[in-house]
């Protein structure tokens, strides 16, 4: 079946799940969505393979004059990855980077409280982790998510995304055990172009999905 556009994140998750069904036989599998948009996709995968659902908290660092363009990403705990090429091309001063970092650090802390409440993060040591987002544009956010994930020593890492550039998929395939991607357009332009419905995912939706009973 050739897919030219995805209906929404739910359909994307179900289609990805059909290619990950072998994880349903693994007691060590866990699905990690990148909030917010990656969580509805991840929830469908987790449901299909009867695996626990959790989150990998990272935030894009947007260029001040174009916040949709990532100049890097920040993770919970303060880990930062910068795309120096973007920083130079847009001539972003250090002071502006610091302001963006502080704003996103506060937002990460807020999301952690809202999404998890008193629930501690899962122990990912020796788990078969499936990292999920609703698409990859520059790859900065996912790259940092991978760095943070590796520090927790999972047994294996798979990446599942509905849409990503072919070059990014090839690069990721050399870094993790498995990459599943439905659409590989070139150029990608922007992720929302490849969905009929790319409505923003809300904090309430993420909280509700994480609160659902899991295996």
Can you characterise this structure?
This protein is an alpha/beta fold and 215 residues long. Helix content is 36%, strand content 21%. It folds into two domains: 9-57 and 122-211, Rossmann fold (3-Layer(aba) Sandwich); 60-115, Ybab, Chain: A, CATH 3.30.1310. The strands form two sheets. Strands 2-1-6-7-8 form a five-stranded parallel beta sheet, sandwiched between helices. A three-stranded antiparallel beta sheet has the order 3-4-5. The longest helix has 23 residues, at 94-116. The mean pLDDT is 93.
Helix count? Answer: 7
Distance between the termini: 31 Å
Taking strands numbered 1, 2, ... along the chain, how are they ordered across the largest sheet? 2-1-6-7-8
Shape, principal axes of CA atoms: globular
User: What count of structural domains?
Assistant: 2
CATH topology descriptor of the largest domain: Rossmann fold
Question: Beta-sheet strand percentage?
Answer: 15-25%
Helix content: 25-40%
Question: What structural category characterises the helix and strand content?
Answer: alpha/beta
Radius of gyration, CA atoms, in whole angstroms: 16 Å
CATH architecture heading of the largest domain:
3-Layer(aba) Sandwich
Mean pLDDT: 93
Keywords for this structure?
215 residues; alpha/beta; Rossmann fold; Ybab, Chain: A; five-stranded parallel β-sheet; three-stranded antiparallel β-sheet; 7 helices; 21% strand; globular
